[in-house]
Structures are given as C-alpha cells and as structure tokens.
Glutathione-dependent formaldehyde-activating enzyme
Amino acid sequence: MIHGNCLCGAVSFTVDGPLGRATCCHCSQCRKQSGHYWASSSAKENNVTVTGEVQWYEASPAAKRGFCPTCGSFLFWKANDEDRISFSLGLVQEPTGLRLESHIFVADKGDYYEIADGLPQLEKS
C-alpha cells in the first residue's frame, strides 16, 4: 500500500492495488504546474482513497489536474476517459518500491536541462 499527502497535510491518499509505471512528464502543463518536470505513477481510480478536499482544474478538454486548495501541492492528473489516476511521487511516503522507468513528452522539455539518466525518452506518452 502506498501512502501520500500534500505539503500541509490537509489532503492525504492511499493506493491499494497494482501501480502503473513511474514516469517523468516533461509536457508544458506539468512543467508549469510543478515548476519543473513531474514524476508520477498511477493506479485504478477505485484503488485510490483520498481524505480531504481536492480542488480540480480542467487543464484541457481531455484531462483535469487536482491540487490542495490550502497549500497548492500538485496531487493528481486524471484523463476524463480513463479509469486510472496519476499521483505525484514527490508526495509519497518512502519506501515506495518504485523506480523511474521513462521520460514522456520530452519534445516539450525545457531547454535549461538535459535528461542524462539513461532511461527511455518518449516524444509523447
């Protein structure tokens, strides 16, 4: 089971079930919301239990982004037509047992850094 919470502790979550791959997203929306690129994993939405209020922002017609309305922590990303929800790895209590597997949307990455960890780099997802 994975446990996580926002910076102020007003929102916490648990994930009980299989996890998706751990990735770093370099798309312009993740970079703008997180301040850099965003490391996340995912799970089926019915395996995620959230305590506290999550504010949702409709980032595009295809997806929304959840954050804590108190401290602003970027918590979740959810595609409207999927039964999975992504959660920020920076919020998860260790040990996670996860390892990054790839970088996605690298075509949008910032010009101020290089990706040099040897993991696969996908132009899209």
The longest helix spans residues 28-34. The mean pLDDT is 97.
